[in-house]
Specification:
Blueprint lengths: L2 E12 L2 E11 L4 E5 L6 H9 L6 E8 L1 H6 L7 E4 L10 H6 L9 H14 L15 H13 L5 E4 L8 H16 L3 E5 L12 E6 L2 E6 L1 H9 L9
Parallel strand pairs: 3-7, 3-8, 5-6, 6-7
Antiparallel strand pairs: 1-2, 1-4, 8-9
Length: about 240
């Protein structure tokens, strides 16, 4: 499921304010990227542009697939998925929310159910499959949203503050799915204001600063945390 997403001369402007201008960036294949920056610098906006939910003021975003990805590309898979910080769920059961993404794919009803139950088992919610989403906690809703994204087997998953206000059990469940996607060759971009088991999966760091994007390895962050175990905030 490997693809490479590239963007060139990417700018976003709101009236007279330039949020950012990024000469170029690329994601994939099999990347794990931590995106940081102060509040209001445009992290969410950038993710929405990369997922196609927003159009940039200037610049372009394109995808390139491996030959076997082009050969087997089908409706059961989505290339780039954006996972909202506040999960958007349908007014229905947990099961119906997760199965939504594969409702038209060429699988039997039995196989679809098996996929959904597998996804829910990974996030520890298989016993709540028939419950209405209104009875779920905030962390459980985020797990349902992650399961719905995972079942599409995206090539790139953009996770916007996925661990905000989550308990350790919910973060642990998100990590299980994120690791599974990485093992399948997917790429992840994760925004967060604190280090945790999810951000520990990242191998690269993007930092939006001074209206541009800086890329650097995570080695200095690891070194800083080793020297001072009380340092948990990664935001500048």
């Amino acid at each position: 499921m490997s693809i490479k997403l590239t963007a060139t001369q990417l700018s976003m402007r709101f009236k007279d304010r330039v949020l950012f201008h990024i000469a170029d960036l690329s994601i994939g294949p099999n990347d794990a990227i931590y995106l940081k920056g102060d509040n209001g610098v445009g992290k969410t906006t950038l993710l929405k542009i990369l997922s196609g939910l927003l159009s940039p003021s200037m610049g372009s975003v394109s995808q390139s697939r491996t030959w076997w990805r082009r050969l087997w590309h089908g409706r059961a898979h989505r290339d780039v998925i954006y996972l909202h910080q506040s999960p958007y769920l349908f007014d229905d059961t947990v099961y119906q929310n997760v199965v939504y993404g594969i409702r038209y794919c060429a699988l039997s009803a039995k196989d679809k159910r098996a996929e959904v139950i597998t996804a829910l088992r990974m996030v520890g919610l298989e016993t709540l499959a028939d419950e209405h989403v209104s009875v779920l906690s905030g962390g459980e809703k985020q797990r349902v949203a992650m399961a719905r994204a995972w079942i599409l087997k995206p090539s790139i998953l953009l996770m916007d503050e996925p661990s905000a206000s989550l308990d350790q059990e919910s973060i642990k469940r998100l990590v299980i799915m994120a690791k599974d996607l990485l093992d399948r060759g997917s790429s992840l971009v994760i925004t967060s204001h604190q280090s945790n088991a999810l951000t520990a999966l990242c191998k690269k760091q993007w930092w939006i600063k001074d209206r541009t994007l800086i890329e650097s390895p995570l080695l200095h962050i690891v070194k800083e945390e080793q020297e001072n175990p009380y340092v948990t905030s990664l935001s500048n």
